[in-house]
Amino acid sequence: MNIQQLNRMHTGRGFTAALDQSGGSTSKALKLYDLIHQMGTRIITSPVFTSEHILGAILFQETMNREICGMPAAGPTDIRDIADQQFELGLHIALPQDIKLLSKLSVPSTDGLYTPLMKDSHVVRVAALSGGYSRAEADEHLSRNPGLIASFSRALTEGLSVQQEQGSFDAVLSRSILDIYAASNEKGGLSGSRQLVLLRHGESVWNKENLFTGWTDVNLSDDGREEAREAGRQLRERGYEFDICYTSYLKRAIHTLDLVLEELDMEWLPVIKDWHLNERHYGALQGLNKAETAEKYGEEQVKIWRRSFDVRPPALSPDDGQTPARQRPYREIPEEELPLAESLKDTIARVIPYFEEQIRPQLMNGRRVLVTAHGNSLRALVMYLEHLSEEEVVRLNLPTGVPLVYHLDENLAVEEKKYLGDPETVAAKMQKVANQGMIHRS
User: Fold this and answer.
1) pTM of the model
2) Of the ranges 58-72, 344-358, 371-385, which one carries the lowest mean pLDDT score?
3) Which of 2, 87, 162, 163 has its Cβ near the most Cβ atoms within 10 Å?
4) What is the C-alpha to C-alpha distance for residues 388 and 393, in angstroms, rounded to an integer?
């Protein structure tokens, strides 16, 4: 185990999967090894078995001597090194300070039984076997012991069979992994983490045409609808669930959320729509082509309008038909509260109070929240959560249709942040956002 692996095992979120076998190394268990190896192979190669929830896997020596999908699980040297290490450790009655142990014990029936062991300087982590309990019972015991993580075998494979159809196998395994992960990390475990997912709507028809959109209520493009569905698939395949959703008054965000919930089969979830989550209002620029506007006024001026922190674009006239006060969705809102143009600073000034008054209490109560909104309203939230400076937030490019997952502590400080999806695809989408407003030279 290298230093990076040691640190992850010591402080990382997740649990260990015991894929050696239940029943120990009895002659009866060993006769079943071929079946056990097939099951272990199916689990390891399942798309839901990822480092997002799994810290490591414990493999039986027979597994390490064999191949998984044509690849050697481990070389003979690896096995000898592990065996030599175990015998060497066994020779020490009083362990030297530099020796580190991962202790594996049955899940305790007495809460806090292993707390003194977990505080020992030699102990990297204490992992619990399911101890003959069902998964639900083992999870319940585990969840009452902060710092203790699972090393389940029988409880992990509960409801699985080697002959099971792939979709059903993956679905049952995903549910097992998520339940065990939660018991290890969230229900009184390492951090009591709060889950917040931010999602910028899929590409709109005006995004596709490179037009300033703002509060203009345009629909998703065909690509944007597919981006929304893919975001839902990414969340579904990783087992994410939610308790409440928020979105803006603009249909490109609303329809993105609809498609995500359809993919998740969670269309019953409560959805709160609020204009405070709308995109930044681009004033008189709305409907203009970004590249043509750059040619007319210069790239630098368009960059200032788009990406400065506190400079507003040219405002709409109050009697313009595009003003929010003349639009049906905003007829109940006092006209003086509705913008004619906004800077990013203005957008932040309406988004953050709404977050603190409406969304923050949901997170503090442990509810899992999905916010589907827009580039600038989400930049406001990222700035707030990550304590970004004005200079940092104006350089932030949020990709369309890519879930941004936050795990937050009890004070809503960021414990973990990650985009879901292929890193190269995410980077390309970020660059596409950054390139908007540039003059396209042939």
Assistant:
1) 0.62
2) 58-72
3) 162
4) 6
